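Is this the right way to post structure tokens for a design question? Let me know if I should format differently. Anyway, here goes:
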């Protein structure tokens, strides 16, 4: 008795390794990994094991489990007498606890010493564990044929379902296997007749206590149909590799992922079909990702079109690879510009040649469109306006937004310069998707979810899964987004809600693309906020955007980095993007729109031709979105009323009803007039002033010249060896009634030129005040710094 009281507590579960099971968001199995000893052994808590299989197993193996102390003395006595005294057939008398002891300690129970050890271990286990704990341990260690142990693994392998969803015929079948797992392996053809016959006898006994289950009688006679380990799913392989790289120290257990298998298969199906159709165009690989921005769950992830195709390096996960984003980052420049009050969606921006120090950006078509709205500039992906807006940002630049938005491995800001606006950096698809999700979440940046915290309560580990998941979601430094939500909201707001909303409304104007012409007749009736991108040398083609609750990104290219003329965002990635979007819509998944409710956004009248608030002379207005207190409050001054001398047709300085008349002219800046002229658009120019008008009168009307070069923000350098040959161009934009420009250095006159002609100055070393005055007496100035280099 004293020995029984003081025997130590044995470990009956934690000594052994277990498998890890990953499920999709709807609890469909994606992957079941082997335990370290190459066995499928999946820990399943007792409350996830159906009462049917618990009761059936006890009925078949150990009817008096809840009455004995670990051994059945009567059964052992009869077995000993029959096996060893009488010497007839060997009879077993092992209780569930004794079987657990044999499984746990691996003893040879076919000899007397082994049997005695088994009895002692059973008593030891019963001394320290409850019946529920013993039953739980048994169901997780019992052999179920081949290298399958535990009811959790057996249920997944044989029936492709968690143990909690076993029906009565399946429960009774599994309860029979542990008694002789080799002969009763349900995979074997020879075992199936035995199992059907034995299950029928067990069912007859079962009905004695459960007469209401008689309806299962016909099902008990059906042929046994089970799967094998070779049938285990290998789904969403790129996502699974991504998950294991993000959580390399996950304990064994059962985890619920963010993947939705139906959406994963939808992506795979469309990608495969699309690449097959476009193979003749040089398209042989694609990556795609679908994220629900409301929950931030990655619901589908396709790293390549074919995981098993070595010719395209199919096992590479393109969603995690760093690639040039092309023009897909431009929306964030416009969002930042809106936030700084530089533009609103209908503001006029200049698509014209411009030099930024040594950098001269060009458009894809190597041409210029002149003055266009900010919305058209973004939709048409014009490079120069985007670079210019980025140049004008003062508070927060694109680089700072990318850093705050989780883009990793960026080089120093100076490395990229203004080329960052055109995709001079690299991002992963996941990073890009999260930035677009930030827009959809109205400026709030959030981290993605790939392993759901609640998985620990849906399917759990050997009492360690919940702690393990919480470790990742509550204390991992790389997942601070799961900290206090209020603090997260303040720290991770990258744009104001209004700026994000207006940026989306601009993207909504981007016309859908179709692979098939007939699709154009049935345009979607739901908004898609999307953008394309094409990297340098046609290495990467992108399409990324928001539709319904989803952010979708599509990439087409080669993992080798080799370019191809077909890799153009709108032509290579755009058709697949919309093919997926329309498929989602056909299933009723594209619902809801991003609303401006509660936002400080209003619609105001905008002068249609200038993009500013209309003055009384603006001939045509249209409604445009505006952020009160932030959007640029500029009254259009292009349309101006002036006085015309009736006799000469020249411009008068004052009104006299007898000699003058009023007329409205368009006063465009000189650079825009040049662009209009290049586009073949003729603007009526205001006449020159009468000679009687003094410069004191003309100099107070209209707009002063604006110096565009040199810039006060740039430090210019000259080489000592070529000091006499160096020149610095002076240029300025003027009002349309100017004709000449007079240039001064420190109030010293240096030259006169036509308004559209640059003046070239031979620079000197030092800091100088540059001033320009037009022929009507209007002027402006700025500083220029020149340093000497060898």
């Amino acid at each position: 008795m004293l020995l029984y009281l003081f025997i130590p507590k044995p470990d009956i579960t934690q000594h052994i390794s277990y498998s890890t099971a990953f499920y999709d968001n709807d609890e469909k199995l994606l992957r079941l990994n082997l335990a370290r000893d190459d066995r499928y052994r999946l820990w399943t808590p007792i409350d996830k094991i159906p009462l049917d299989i618990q009761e059936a197993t006890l009925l078949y193996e150990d009817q008096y489990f809840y009455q004995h102390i670990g051994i059945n003395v009567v059964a052992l006595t009869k077995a000993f007498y029959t096996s060893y005294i009488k010497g007839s057939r060997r009879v077993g008398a092992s209780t569930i606890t004794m079987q657990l002891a044999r499984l746990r300690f691996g003893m040879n129970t076919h000899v007397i010493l082994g049997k005695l050890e088994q009895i002692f271990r059973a008593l030891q286990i019963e001394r320290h564990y409850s019946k529920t704990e013993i039953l739980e341990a048994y169901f997780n260690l019992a052999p179920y044929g081949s290298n399958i142990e535990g009811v959790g693994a057996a249920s997944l392998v044989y029936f492709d379902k968690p143990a909690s969803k076993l029906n009565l015929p399946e429960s009774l079948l599994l309860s029979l296997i542990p008694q002789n797992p080799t002969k009763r392996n349900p995979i074997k053809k020879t075992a199936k007749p035995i199992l059907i016959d034995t299950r029928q006898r067990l069912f007859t006994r079962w009905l004695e206590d459960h007469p209401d289950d008689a309806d299962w009688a016909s099902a008990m006679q059906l042929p046994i149909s089970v799967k094998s380990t070779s049938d285990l799913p290998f789904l969403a392989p790129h996502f699974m590799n991504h998950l294991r790289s993000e959580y390399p120290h996950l304990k064994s257990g059962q985890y619920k992922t963010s993947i939705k298998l139906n959406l994963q298969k939808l992506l795979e199906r469309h990608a495969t079909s699309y690449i097959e159709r476009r193979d003749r165009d040089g398209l042989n690989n694609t990556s795609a990702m679908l994220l629900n921005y409301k929950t931030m769950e990655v619901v589908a992830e396709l790293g390549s079109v074919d995981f098993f195709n070595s010719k395209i390096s199919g096992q590479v996960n393109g969603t995690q690879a760093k690639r040039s984003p092309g023009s897909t980052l431009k929306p964030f420049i416009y969002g930042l510009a809106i936030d700084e009050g530089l533009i609103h969606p209908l503001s006029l921006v200049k698509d014209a040649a411009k030099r930024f120090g040594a950098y001269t950006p060009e458009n894809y078509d190597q041409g210029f469109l002149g003055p266009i709205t900010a919305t058209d500039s973004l939709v048409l992906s014009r490079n120069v306006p985007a670079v210019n807006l980025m140049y004008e940002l003062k508070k927060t630049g694109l680089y700072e937004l990318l850093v705050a938005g989780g883009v990793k491995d960026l080089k120093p800001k100076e490395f990229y310069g203004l080329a960052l606006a055109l995709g001079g950096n690299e991002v992963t698809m996941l990073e890009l998707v999260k930035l677009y999700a930030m827009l959809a979440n109205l400026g709030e940046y959030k981290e993605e979810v790939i392993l759901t915290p609640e998985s620990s309560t849906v399917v759990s580990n050997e009492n360690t899964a919940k702690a393990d998941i919480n470790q990742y979601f509550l204390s991992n430094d790389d997942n601070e987004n799961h900290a206090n939500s209020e603090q997260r909201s303040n720290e991770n707001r990258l744009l104001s809600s209004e700026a994000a909303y207006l940026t989306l409304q601009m993207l909504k104007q981007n016309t859908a693309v179709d692979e098939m012409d007939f699709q154009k007749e049935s345009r979607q009736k739901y908004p898609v906020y999307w953008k394309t991108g094409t990297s340098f040398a046609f290495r990467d083609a992108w399409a990324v955007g928001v539709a319904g609750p989803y952010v979708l990104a599509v990439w087409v290219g080669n993992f080798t980095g080799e370019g191809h003329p077909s890799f153009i965002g709108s032509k290579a990635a755009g058709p697949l993007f919309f093919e997926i979007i329309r498929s989602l819509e056909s299933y009723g998944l594209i619902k809801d729109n991003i609303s401006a409710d509660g936002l400080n956004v209003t619609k105001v009248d905008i002068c249609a031709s200038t993009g500013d608030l209309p003055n009384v002379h603006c001939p045509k207005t249209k409604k445009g979105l505006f952020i009160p207190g932030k959007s640029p409050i500029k009254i259009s001054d292009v349309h101006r009323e002036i006085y015309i001398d009736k006799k000469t047709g020249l411009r008068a300085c004052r009104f006299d009803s007898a000699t003058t008349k009023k007329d409205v002219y368009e006063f465009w800046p000189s650079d825009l007039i040049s662009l209009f002229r290049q586009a073949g658009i003729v603007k009526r120019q205001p006449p020159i002033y009468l000679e009687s008008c003094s410069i004191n009168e003309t100099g107070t009307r209209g707009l002063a010249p604006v110096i565009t070069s040199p810039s006060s923000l740039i430090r210019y350098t000259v080489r000592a060896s070529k000091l006499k040959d160096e020149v610095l161009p002076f240029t300025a934009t003027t009002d349309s009634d100017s004709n000449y420009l007079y240039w001064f250095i420190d109030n010293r006159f240096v030259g006169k030129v036509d308004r559209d002609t640059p003046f070239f100055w031979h620079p000197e070393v030092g800091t100088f005040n540059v001033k320009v005055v037009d022929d009507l007496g209007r002027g402006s100035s700025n500083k220029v710094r020149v340093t000497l280099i060898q």
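Format looks fine. Someone answered above. Worth noting: Residues 456-490 have pLDDT under 50 and may be disordered. The two ends are 98 Å apart (CA to CA).
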